[in-house]
Write a structure and sequence with these properties.
single chain, 31% helix, 4 helices, 113 residues, alpha+beta
Length: 113
């Protein structure tokens, strides 16, 4: 899909991913005017699948304290026809696993060892 000018086209992009076998996002936000589409997924496997499906080249990781719990937010983004699409995964992490906070994709490091 090269154009995301309407809400139907944006939702069609998600429907195409689900039809291709990806898990449906647990939360979807589409901004008025179709200029921003956000998908929230449940686990790292879903996050990797959606970012590969959408071809998201931009990755960012943010670690923050949320009421005494440490959370890690991984975000992958791509811009298609002026619409910024982001795929976000929020995971709870513990201080026992500080090494996990220092790498962009902890599954890759596990596979290498």
């Amino acid at each position: 899909m090269t154009e995301l000018a309407t809400r139907a086209q944006a939702f069609g992009l998600i429907a195409d991913g689900v039809a291709a076998g990806l898990s449906a996002p647990w939360r979807l936000y589409l901004a008025r005017g179709c200029r921003y589409l956000s998908l929230n997924v449940g686990d790292r496997g879903e996050w990797n699948s959606w970012r590969a499906h959408l071809g998201c080249p931009e990755l960012s990781v943010r670690v923050y304290d949320s009421g005494g719990e440490i959370r890690r937010a991984s975000v992958a983004e791509v811009v298609l026809d002026g619409c910024r699409i982001s795929v976000e995964l929020v995971e709870e992490v513990s201080t026992d696993d500080l090494d996990r906070l220092l790498v962009s994709d902890p599954t890759l490091d596990q596979e290498e060892t």
